[in-house]
Amino acid sequence: MKPEPTREGDGRRPGPGRRGPEGRGRGDASGEEIDRTSPAIEVNDLTVAYREQPVLWDVDVAFRHGALTAIVGPNGAGKTTLIQTILGLVRPAAGRIRILGQPVREGRRSVAYVPQRGSVDWDFPTSVLDVVVMGTYGRLGWFRRPGRREREAALEALAKVGMEAFAERQIRQLSGGQQQRVFLARALVQEAPIYLMDEPFQGVDARTERAIVEVLSDLRARGDTVIAVHHALQTVPEYFDDVVLLNVRRIASGPVPQVFTEENLRTCYGGRVPFLHAVAGPPGAGSPAPGAGSPVPGPGSSASSSGAAPSPRPGASARPADGSA
């Protein structure tokens, strides 16, 4: 749904999906103007453990407004756990999270979530349109039922991902890529200022990948924040502005040209990083992480490791190209 302009002098605050006058940000779920001088999401000293086994350990990371950020790391690195903890679905052992400056319980109302396909029961008997309309429930509350306005918004969201022709189809009848686009449409209809996506490109065809990239670009253009768990290292420089390298601990985070370096990648993946040249950052870029080395050399030059990288914790695989958190 296109942002609805706010008229100056009419006394309304810009809410979700609306832009204020020039120089003012969109609103959060409560309609309050967003303070873009502070991070969209801020994570401090976060530790999460399952059965006394740390999954995230003392993680500090800030996600800036209006950026597309990838969270990457090997299997078992805690990528999905980080997303779910930000959403309040997982209880941390220690640490603090702020979403738009608010505690998780209040701030998560300003977040739209696209889960992994594998976590969804696709046999549930419901139509594509009904799945997308579910995205409007949060703002309707307990006692209002979705009506024509919500159905029109859902159809518009389906059109953005090229799925309007499938509106009456049962969700279980769709291909994996089509199902992923439907869940993206369900997130879009929420008109949230922040989007969290868990492996949005996993198992999709080329057409769906292009459609998702287009939607992400549109969200960034309107100032929204997108944070996605991502597994294909070779597309990080092309698709994303920022990157978080995670392997239980935060290895490094920040703008891709500065952080996506050979030494940071080797540290994150335990020294085993295939396609290193293909995912190289531009020569001359630095890294904000203490002890980080030079970016990956460009084609034709030699890539050398600066020493033995620490091994991942037990159970954390060092396969960067196709694993999930």
What CATH architecture label of one domain applies? 3-Layer(aba) Sandwich
User: What is the percent of helical residues?
Assistant: 10-25%
**Fourth-tier CATH superfamily name of one domain:** P-loop containing nucleotide triphosphate hydrolases
Q: How many angstroms does the end-to-end distance come to?
A: 32 Å
Alpha carbon gyration radius: 20 Å
Percent of residues in beta strands? 15-25%
Structural classification:
alpha/beta
Largest sheet: 6 strands, mixed
Described by the principal axes of the CA atoms, the overall outline is globular
Q: State the CATH topology of one domain.
A: Rossmann fold
The largest beta-sheet arranges its strands as 7-8-9-5-10-11
Top-tier CATH class of one domain:
Alpha Beta
Tally of DSSP helical segments: 10
What's the helix-strand series? EEEEEHEHEHHHHEHEHEEHH
By DSSP, the count of extended strands is 11
Parts with pLDDT < 50 across at least 5 consecutive residues:
1-24, 278-325
